[in-house]
Automatic annotation (TrEMBL):
This is DNA-binding protein. InterPro entries: Hist_DNA-bd, Histone-like_DNA-bd_CS, IHF-like_DNA-bd_dom_sf. Belongs to the bacterial histone-like protein family. GO terms for molecular function: DNA binding; identical protein binding; structural constituent of chromatin. GO terms for cellular component: cytosol; DnaA-HU complex; HU-DNA complex. PANTHER family: DNA-BINDING PROTEIN HU, DNA-BINDING PROTEIN HU-BETA. Keywords: DNA condensation, DNA-binding. One of its GO terms (biological process) is DNA replication initiation. SMART domains: BHL. Coiled coil: none annotated. CDD domains: HU. Histone-like DNA-binding protein which is capable of wrapping DNA to stabilize it, and thus to prevent its denaturation under extreme environmental conditions.
């Protein structure tokens, strides 16, 4: 499912225009992004939890030359599925 497909589905289910559905979806994504950027966790009951994951600095290897390189520490987004989502995926 693409973003466009999701917008179409939201518009149909919520009985709103596609433009309104796109604004709603963009707002949700923006607020989740802002919360994660502040280091907060976003818990969506029944769906899942978005959190920030810390990756430590490490030594890697350039695949072309075999030379060792230092990879900087970084942050990434992590998603943990909630019980209702897991149950839906497993046909329960």
């Amino acid at each position: 499912m693409t973003k466009s497909d999701l917008i179409d589905a939201i518009a149909a289910d919520a009985d709103v225009s596609k433009a309104s559905a796109q604004r709603m979806l963009d707002a949700v994504a923006q607020h989740i992004t802002q919360a994660l950027a502040k280091g907060e966790t976003v818990a969506w009951a029944g769906f899942g939890t978005f959190a920030v994951s810390e990756r430590a600095a490490r030594t890697g290897r350039n695949p072309r030359t075999g030379e060792e390189i230092q990879i900087e520490a970084s942050k990434g987004a992590k998603f943990s599925a909630g019980k209702a989502l897991k149950d839906a995926l497993n046909g329960r």
